[in-house]
Specification:
CATH architecture of the largest domain in chain A: 2-Layer Sandwich
Largest sheet of chain A: 9 strands, antiparallel
Pathway (chains A, B): Purine metabolism; IMP biosynthesis via de novo pathway; 5-amino-1-(5-phospho-D-ribosyl)imidazole-4-carboxylate from 5-amino-1-(5-phospho-D-ribosyl)imidazole (N5-CAIR route): step 1/2
Catalytic activity (chains A, B): 5-amino-1-(5-phospho-beta-D-ribosyl)imidazole + hydrogencarbonate + ATP = 5-carboxyamino-1-(5-phospho-D-ribosyl)imidazole + ADP + phosphate + 2 H(+)
EC number (chains A, B): 6.3.4.18
Radius of gyration of chain A: 21 Å
Subunit structure (chains A, B): Homodimer.
Oligomer: homodimer
Pfam families (chains A, B): ATP-grasp, PurK_C, RS_preATP-grasp-like
Number of domains of chain A: 3
Structural class of chain A: alpha+beta
CATH topology of the largest domain in chain A: D-amino Acid Aminotransferase, Chain A, domain 1
Helix content of chain A: 25-40%
Strand content of chain A: 15-25%
């Protein structure tokens, strides 16, 4: 697996059960996955020689991020390395503009969008035309390299802010695109896996709650989601994975609009934050499933094992809490013996994902109850402060 | 963790979630745990220097087997190493005679037994007296070092066989004891964990099914077990762990007699085969719990997540199947996407435990259904032959 982050770390846990050991290409021995696997190749995902060293003798090569240059992926494939997902698929997760164009061609619901690459003056003019048509209710996005809210600018009607962001990006050689801001009710994620044989398997569609531009909480399954809408989301994801030739996991992030329609937001072709709930709440976790797909095993059952599962991320606080992470874990375990904590072995930095936890509902427990505990636990682990959980009216206007 | 076997391997999986990495003392880099953890000390559990090297800088030292000499444990403790469970407790899991005497003194129900250590002629005479009194319905056991049916001789009324086994053992310097053969209905296991603070937590009592002297199948919870009997078993285990000062997991193997009484058979103070079902079927797995106890975290919830969970061991076959383990795994996954397989990365040898699998019942699924699938899956994985599962009338007279 290329990348030594938490996704590789948790994939190694699943590899162990399958009688395997995950080799990781990591930048340093202290990265989350490199710290727990004995098979570490130190190097950079930007360096083809390092990638080749990592691939040597491996059955297949896969990823914990989208950062490997497309040319390198093609070079690996040309030398016979089994790259999963293949570059022909992964390029759509790497390049938001390419993804938008392909999805639009396939007739999938996407927001209105405009390409801002190429000649800067022409792109600026295109932005002004597009923005005006949308009353500047638009989102600017870096075509490549954004994640967890980085590389995304929400333009809330402010033309000057949009143009300033464009000019700054153009000055720094960041290629942008612009999209219509969808009048959404909430965000969903449809996670599926696809094997080289074309077997597909979909987990229940979940609701994702974003804070500061990154995933904070996942409700599984998405509460109150119309079953037909859920099925439509799963079918869209399965059909798209088939169309693009995805191998491995794919998360299709969706907006559910105020009218109940679905609009595709982003794609990820790897284990994904919106699938962490499966580690404790589904028959097959996303990490085992990704390995099954990449290693060409039949896929595992995707049913949830409970009516309600809530995942909450543990994030680095602005101010490091007085208590150490280890002390906070002690207190959490004493208060909530049912909490399933997953720590990544990362230093705490503001808003950095350093772990997550799952609360799996027991029969008769309500979503509000389960979510309250998950949010309270994650807030404690992040900030070292006990609160009453979350505000059920958060986000209401 | 001293020992590089599958118990350490699976403990490492749980350590990862707690933000840790398990150091193992292993005999070779290819042992199950050494193959998946980057923190391996190569050496022998019989060598005090190796034990000291493994303990250096570790928060605590624990075990995946009972094989460390007691004197070494005491020497480690004398040097300030935090040994969990401590030698004062672990000696009872290492020495069956010591365990029997202690349990009898504490008033716990044990079979009639006789010490056969010391002078060979006197011990032989004691055996003849004890055997005759029991109509030779006795079991001979090596006081130390037996496991998975090794070091146990079932004497089914055959005096000559008993004396032959005694003479062979005495010639080989194996110290024996003899026990009454209990007229049992079935075997149970009461698994608990105890923290250094004395917190105790008990999983549901399970039924264990032995074949060829070793655990083959576990039914969780033990079907049809009288709730008062189950509670009595849990209380016995918790009270004993407290009395002995156990830290970590303890499995109390029990006979349920034909009269519905309980008799203590064996003790293990570590993760145990009878607790493998917890990996997929309980809120907290035995491996996470053992770590929590040994590292002095509050213990996790022990509830089963399903009404029925069946664990079945994958054993090496007498004749290696034509299909490789990997091919068999492919076929199993295709047939049973719900099977949770745990492979240990071990070579297959006759009757050697090379993995296990859990089937977690879904609402409405019967024990017979779940067990049939688990046994069929394990038989396939062991032998490469599909059968109809197991004979529900097995063991009936």
């Amino acid at each position: 697996m290329i990348g030594g982050g938490q996704l590789a770390r948790m994939t190694h846990q699943s590899a162990i059960a399958l009688g395997q050991c995950l080799r990781v290409l990591a930048g340093s021995a202290s990265e989350p996955a490199a710290a727990v696997s004995p098979d570490v190749v130190l190097g950079s995902h930007d360096d083809l020689d390092d990638l080749l060293r990592a691939a040597e003798g491996a059955v297949a090569l896969t990823f914990d991020h989208e950062g490997v240059p497309l040319d390198h992926l093609r070079a690996l494939e040309a030398r016979g390395v089994v790259v999963r997902p293949p570059s022909a698929a992964l390029q759509y997760a790497q390049d938001k503009m390419l993804m938008r164009e392909r999805l639009a061609k396939l007739g999938l619901p996407v927001p209105a969008f405009v390409d801002l690459s190429g000649d800067v003056a022409a792109a600026r003019a295109a932005l002004i035309e597009f923005g005006a048509a949308q009353d500047w209710q638009i989102v600017l996005k870096a075509v490549r390299g954004g994640y967890d809210g980085r590389g995304v600018w929400l333009i809330d009607g402010d033309e000057a802010a949009a143009l300033a962001a464009f000019d700054a990006a153009a000055g720094g050689d960041t290629v942008l695109m612009a999209e219509q801001k969808v009048p959404m009710a909430r965000e969903l994620s449809a996670m599926i896996a696809r094997s080289p044989h074309g077997q597909g398997a979909a987990w229940p569609v979940v609701e994702t709650i974003q804070r500061k531009g990154q995933c904070a909480v996942v409700l599984a399954p998405a509460p109150g989601l119309d079953p037909e809408t859920a099925q439509r989301a799963q079918q869209m994801a399965l059909a798209l994975a088939d169309e693009l030739g995805v191998v491995g996991n794919m998360a299709m992030e969706l907006f559910e609009t105020v009218d109940g329609d679905l609009v595709v937001n982003e794609l990820a072709m790897r284990p994904h934050n919106s699938g962490h709930w499966t580690m404790d709440g589904a028959v097959t976790s996303q990490f085992e499933q990704h390995l099954r797909a990449v290693l060409d095993y039949p896929l595992g059952a995707t049913a949830a094992t409970s009516d309600v599962v809530v995942m909450a991320n543990i994030l680095g606080a602005e101010q490091a809490p007085a208590m150490s992470m280890d002390e906070r874990l002690h207190h959490l375990m004493a208060r909530m013996p049912e909490a399933k904590v997953h720590l990544y072995g990362k230093d705490e930095r503001p808003d950095r994902k350093v772990g997550h936890l799952n609360i799996v509902g027991r029969p008769g427990q309500s979503l509000d109850d389960v979510r309250e505990r998950a949010e309270r636990a994650a807030h404690w682990m992040s900030h070292g402060v006990w609160t009453d959980g979350w505000d059920p009216h958060e986000g209401e206007n």
